[in-house]
Amino acid sequence: MDPSDDTRFLLQRWHAGDRQAIEALVARDLEWIRGHVRARLGPLLRARGETMDYVQDAVLDVLQYTPRFLTDDRRQFRALVARIVENHLRDAHDHHAAARRSPLRERPVPTDSVLDLAAGQRPVTQPGAVAERREEEGWVRLALELLEPEDRQVLLLRQWQELEFAAVGARMGLSEDAARMRFQRALPKLAKKLEALRSGRGLGDG
User: Fold this and answer.
1) What is the pLDDT of residue 122?
2) Is 0.85 surpassed by the pTM of this model?
């Protein structure tokens, strides 16, 4: 590991409550993240300058909603944040959201869904359980961001937007039965990714 790489140190300071540490990380890597996202999003969004201007706010927004993760180095941090921001900008384009906010930012993890089973969440019955639940929701969101795009999309449409499978299929160019099958296949992938993240193995292989 490069001894001059301060990524892990800054993330640990953020964990301890130092807001300036995460702002320093964002400022340090913003231009790289913006360039990476611009190159990956295609000509339509690249032509919309305001979308790229939004990246800084999107990065800060992402870090407020994700769990307090650690990465090994700067490369891993950049790749992780760029992927999440890329997902969110695609969501914005797909849904024509004026405020350009992802469905993940508008609603918590659905409490009556099998995502609770994937997250291993427990009823709020003891002190500290609310904060623990929020942390669990953050891990679910992060795991979702690291899935393949089609798996992520079917889970968002079904669980966050609460669409029927016929509507999910119409949005994804699938039949109703195919959409249902894709959703059923995506759930164990989410659970596996979540388990990997909790064990510290998931950030590098997403």
Assistant:
1) 47
2) no
